[in-house]
Structure formats: structure tokens, C-alpha cells
Amino acid sequence: MKSVPDLVAGGIFVLIGGAFVVGSLSYELGTPLRMGPGAFPLLVGAIVAALGLAIAVKGLVAGEVAEFGPIPWRAIAAIVAALLFFGFTVRGLGFVPTSAVTALLTTLASKRVRLLAALAVTGGLTVAATLIFVVGLQLRIPLFGPWLGL
Amino acid sequence: MDLLDNLALGFSTALLLENVVYCFIGVLLGTMVGVLPGIGPTATVAMLLPITFNFEPVTALIMLAGIYYGAQYGGSTTAILINLPGESSAAVTALDGHEMARQGRAGAALAAAAIGSFVAGTVATVVLAVAAPPLARVALQFGPAEYFSLVLFGLIVSIALARGSTLKALAMIALGVLLGTVGQDLYTGEPRFTFDQRELYGGIDFVSVAVGMFGVAEILRNLENEAGRTALVSTVRNLWPTREDRRRIVAPIARGTVLGSALGVLPGGGHVLASFTSYAVEKRVSKRQQEFGHGAIEGVAGPESANNAAAQTSFIPLLTLGLPAHPVMALMVGAFIVHGITPGPNVIADEPALFWGLIASMWIGNVLLVLLNLPLIGIWVRMLRIPYQVLFPMIILFAAIGTYSLGFNAFDVYAIVFFGLLGYVLIKCGCEPAPLLLGFVLGPLIEENLRRAMIISRGDATVFLTRPLSAVLLALAAGALVLAVLPAIRKRREVVFTEDD
């Protein structure tokens, strides 16, 4: 095992390419004259998988020893949670509460977050986002949603 | 004269109050994201795209283009002041520009960059106006076979100019093309890879892909190492360059402009190549080679001019062939399509006001940029003090709101989570996201033209080789691929791009 990143990258390409190849077989392939919906994805999926294989093999044989480096688990968790929360609640809670919680969750991504600063950022961003998107750009999202019973 | 008539039409469009205002907003935003490290023009344009869908097409494109070349200006400010290039092409500027700032000559460096950029931008706008119509006329002769080969050529050349592993870049392009096949089939209307999700019938939205890969993934990368940023230079004095400085920057600006205008036409990040090449040229022809790397003003003026000229002329392939040279332009292709315009040779004939208005707006934008960047430099310096802990929540929140407003659909927000994570893992593995976005936008074009060409040729695949233009383009693509793989050239590329981080 020489280059872990090469192997991971190759694996991802093989996996996605392969999945598309398998998926495209369930669509009509057609003839060269009239290519069906499955033909092009089949071709490109196979190319992706082949390139992925080549990357993985190259990583095994001639890859430079490379480390992944630190992975910011905390940031990943906080940002994913913030975005999922936004998608999940924007309709129900409305623009203002959803933006505030999303901003607050996002500030937690930084290891150097302090409570007061996080609250200040949350407040500032919520006001700014409301002014820019709802007041300025007239985005049609209710400020407060039906879940709040207002 | 035709050209003058066309330019008059362009200026009368671009000078409409609304268009000037949005041009200003565009270059202002562009300068801002160029100055701020950690957010690039691609993520910005992607986030703002949904908002521009209600604008007049020409207004939307003027603003988006402004963000793109405005970011090139802003990037150099950060490079000079804190040695952190906001945009990859500004990396060269940091070499001598930051050295000058440390010697207390930040003002002269900023002025040289701004003046060079302005001159280059002006010349390149004229080049664009002169070169685009004939090229579009050639492109109008293209049939599906030629188009297929052209798009393939564009994609391959964009790898040859990118950095990092050729194999990975190829795989990223192919993956982008593959993701582009999701959605209803063009010919039969059969939904492909949609898992019965209504939201996927129209295909994956390119805004989600771009915001995820360039916005979310980039933030995750920046949060790996949270080191405090220090602004070294707090005040900038003596903006006007001395007589000696002025004498020294004339030739580099001229050379940089010519170089940049030529290289910018290449598909795929020609502006990065242009600034590196210009630096190498200036260093070679200079009588004061020992000064390079220690604050030579030529090393700022040349690359900055080249970079800006290239940023301008890279609109040539976009406007004449529909080939984007940069991820931002890939997004602009999307903007064209949303407004019901197919980017390509027809734009110039069908939408003359849009075409010439966009070109004229670039010159206006360049004037605005000089006004924004030189007298207001103090504001930009202060902006550099904004801590990242404020910046990244803002980007995430605006990204969520922007993508949600695409269709008031939570699905698009979940899509940026998916592409953010996928993009982050791929970036960690050494795969750059730009080729994927280019492939994603151009993929449907490749498929459409491939299938149409096959129908016209009655299923004979040799049509791509028997039609001369198509064959030439394919041969050029193959050549570019060989060049990118050959070890000798690889080594040179690595040297050129090592400073690119």
C-alpha cells in the first residue's frame, strides 16, 4: 500500500462508474444508428471505472507515499447538520428561525468557537440574510413558518 | 465600419443604468471574493445564479462576468498584502508583490497591478470584439460530428493546462459527464438514474454541484488547519508609482497583455498559465534578474496584465463556441441556457445586443475596477481582518438560501451536502473539482452531438475521422493528451504550477 489517496480516489471512480454501468443496462441500449438512453452512460461509466482502476493500480505500483492529513470531523458534522437542518425546516419554521439555527450550527464547526462570538455571528448573519434575501431580493419565503403557530 | 456600429450597440446596452449598476455590483462582489481567501468566484457565482434568473439575460451575464474578472483584480490585492493569493492566478503576483509590500512599497505594487490590469483589460476587450465574430462564422459551419470533437478537444486541453495528475483529471471529467446523464433522456424522455425522485427528472442542478464542490468542500478544507491570519501591511501609502517605476512597467505591461490575450483563448485556465509564463518571460528579458523574487515591479506588472488580459479573452471560446474555459464560465453556460439562449456561434447573430453589451460592459467594468481598487484600497485592507469564523458561516448560510431559492425545494440543499462531501473526499485524494464541473456542463452536449452525428452518418462511427475539421480537432485532442502525459513536459508543468497553492 503506497498511496492511500490514490487507492481511495480509484475506488470511488470504480464504484460510481460501475454503478452507472449496471444502471444503464436496465435501459435500452439501441443500435449504433439509434443509440438508446442506456448507451452513452454505459460507455462513459465504463471509462470512469477503467480510469479509476488505472489510478488505483498506479497508486499501488508507483504512487508516492502520501498521507491523508487531518480530517476535520467536527467541521464535517456541524456543517452537514446545519445544511440538513436548513433543508428540513425552512418550510416549516420560516426564514428567520431556520437561518439563525443554521448559522449557529455552522459556527460550531470551528474548534476556536466562543459562545459570545458565535451568538454575535448568528445574530448578524440572520439580520443580514433577511435584509438581503427577503427584503432586498424579495425571495418568497415566509419569515416565520406554520410550525410556530404564528 | 461594422466593428464601430457593433461597439456602439454594445455601449448603448451596457450603459443602461440598470446594467451599469449590476456591472458595478458584479465587480464589487468579485473584488470582495477575490480579496478574501477561502471563497472563490466559482462558489460566489453559483450561489448568486438562482437570484439572477429573474434578471434580463444581458444584465445577469454582465453581473456574472463582472464577478469573474473582478475576482482576478481582488486576488492580486491579497497576494501583495498578505502573501496569500485569493485566486490561483495571483500566486505569481505574491512572489514580488509581497516582497515590495514588505519593503514599504505596497502602494506602488498595487498601482502597477491595477494599471497593468486596466491596460490589459482594455486591449483584450478590443481583441475579443475583433476576433469573436470571424470565429463564430467558422463555428456556424459545424455539424454534430465537429461539435462532438470540439467539445472533446476543449475538455482535454483543459486538463493539459491543469495541474496535478492527468489520470485523475481525466477521471474527473468523465465523472462529470457521467453525472450529467442523470435525468430524462433527450431523445426518448426516459428518466435515467433518477430513483423515482421527481427532483432528478430535470437532471442534477449544476448550481448544487458547483456550490457543493467549490463552496462546501473548500470550507471543509480550510477548517483542517485553523491558523490565525495576520495582516502584515496595515496602511498603504504612496499609491502613485514613481517616475522610475512608471518607466519600468511599460514594457512588461505590453508584453503581458499580448501574452495573456493569446493564452486566454485556450480552453481551461489559460489565465493561470498566462501569468506564470509572463513572469518567466519578464525574468528572462530583465537586466535586473537578481531583483526578481526580491521586489521587482516588473514581476508584478507583467503577470497581472497577462492574467487580466487572459481573463477577458477567455470569453472568446465561450461566446463563439459555447466552450467554457473556467468553472465560472461553465456556470455562465448554465445561465445562458436558463435564459433560453444556447451559448455558441448563434449568440452573436441572434442576440447582438446581449453579445456586444457583454463585451462593452467588460470595459466599463475595468474602469469601475480601477476606481474601486485604487482609491478604496483602505476598505479592502480592512476586509482582510474579517476572521474566518465569521466568513464561513456566512458562506454556508448563503449557499443554503441560494440553492433553496433555485426551486424552493429542500432537495437542492441536500444535493450540496452530497456534492460537498464527495468533493471534499476527492480533493483530499488529489482530484481537482474544476474538470468535473466542466465535464458536467458539457456532458449533455457531447451526448447529444454524438447521437445526432451517428444518426446522420447512419451508424457509421468513422464519420468523426472522415470529416476533416472533426479529424483535426480529434488529432489535436490526442496530441494534447500525449503532451500532458509525457514525463518531460509533466516535469515542466509541475515547476510551473508548484507555486500554485
From TrEMBL, chain A:
Keywords: Membrane, Transmembrane, Transmembrane helix. The keyword ATP-binding does not apply. InterPro entries: DUF1468. Residues 8-142 form the DUF1468 domain. The chain crosses the membrane at residues 7-27, 39-61, 73-95, 115-137. This is DUF1468 domain-containing protein.
From TrEMBL, chain B:
The chain crosses the membrane at residues 45-69, 108-132, 144-162, 169-188, 200-220, 315-341, 353-374, 386-407, 413-443, 464-489. The keyword Membrane applies. The keyword Membrane applies. It comes from the Bacteria. Keywords: Membrane, Transmembrane, Transmembrane helix. Residues 21-438 form the DUF112 domain. PANTHER family: TRICARBOXYLIC TRANSPORT PROTEIN. This is TctA family transporter. It comes from Nonomuraea soli.
